[in-house]
Amino acid sequence: MKKTIMAISTALLFGGVATAQKITFEEYDLNNGMHVILHQDNSAPVVITSVMYHVGSKDENPNKTGFAHFFEHLLFEGTQNIKRGEWFNIVTANGGVNNANTSDDRTYYYEVFPSNNLELALWMESERLMHPVINQIGVDTQKGVIKEEKNSRYDNQPYGKIIEAVKENLFTNHPYRWTTIGSTEHLNSAKLEDFKAFNEKFYVPNNAVLVVAGDFEQGQAKEWIQKYFGPIKKGDEIKRETFIEKPITETIKATHIDPNIQIPMLVAAYRTPSMKTRDARILDFISSYLSDGKSSKLYKKIVDDKKKALQIGAVGFNQEDYGMYILYGLPMTNFTNEDLLREIDEEIVKIQTELISEKDYQKLLNQFENQYVNQNSSVEGIAENLAKYYLLYGDVNLINTDIDIYHSITREEIRAVAQKYLNPNQRLILDYIPSPEKNEN
């Protein structure tokens, strides 16, 4: 398998479009509503056990933000049968690694073990779901951890508040308007009962997908899955509210002052459609064409050729309900944010009025084929993609067919989608600037 992947990757480096191997899987439901996906790959003696829960920061009360990310930490505290502080010791003592991450839309936990420890992994993940210990000492401990993370990664990090500033201006109604890490004040004021209620509502088998991928025997895996997850009680149906944002029809202008920076930053952000749409995939093409790496149109033009910027880049957020396409730039001395914006707009207008070249189009196809192969080149990547496509897209087989959608995108569609979404009256222009005293120094 590894040799096959290396051969595919090598072909892509030389401009060929390769066809990745089909990912095989089996899926079924337990009686309690938990969805199970099995992917067998016996090429290496490792197995990954992962659970993705359909809960992210968008599911939070606007007055109690940060809960989803908080639980990513809290549920490693221990269970009725795993003593506090022992989770990581058990994993490492048995040759494994584990981690978790949270987004606006979901929370994901996983363990990678030698294949002879599959039963241990399944038991541990079932313990997290069936017997979590949510007490005051664990909550207080993780409040300190989250506070330190927020200080170091966001509050005191240069340019650390960009995403927060963009979200609060692009979204007025949808819960995407706050960040995943949430508010320290909300977490500090929350009571133990609030955390228990959040767990009881969202950490239920019918709000999750279990993925087992790697080297295992399917019959035995199914027995253990039933043994450890089958007895877990089904939770109440989760009623989700639909939040609709009005279209942006005139430029939103905002300013954010960051005391941790010395160089101002231009930020131009567009609200984009759900990642499940074809338009979102076309916008992925446009983002890559404009701003993905040093060979992109914007970098070559503004940084390399005209030397008007220290840096030009973009961040794309593909999410379940809406997405964001965020362009940013650091102007060189003697140039301004307005100078960078004019250069960016010139390139956007070109995409809106002209077809990109056949050469650039083929380059995009190769890039996305390469990304697809890389994402599915490890058992860990396959497991997460299987969970994601089931939970957020509603179609597990997109792990095999999503790349076909990208292949079917035409140059004409690229032009049309740029015309539809990337207009000056449909965006946020954020001046991200230093404190006034920084400019005086």
TrEMBL record:
Alphabetized Pfam families for the sequence: Peptidase_M16, Peptidase_M16_C
Single GO BP term: proteolysis
GO MF terms, alphabetically ordered: metal ion binding; metallopeptidase activity
Cleaved signal peptide residues: 1-20
Peptidase M16 N-terminal domain: residues covered: 36-180
Domain Peptidase M16 C-terminal, residue spans: 191-367
Recorded superkingdom: Bacteria
Entry keyword Signal: yes
Keyword list, A-Z: Hydrolase, Metalloprotease, Protease, Signal, Zinc
Family label: Belongs to the peptidase M16 family.
Protein name (record): Peptidase M16
Species per Swiss-Prot/TrEMBL record: Flavobacterium commune
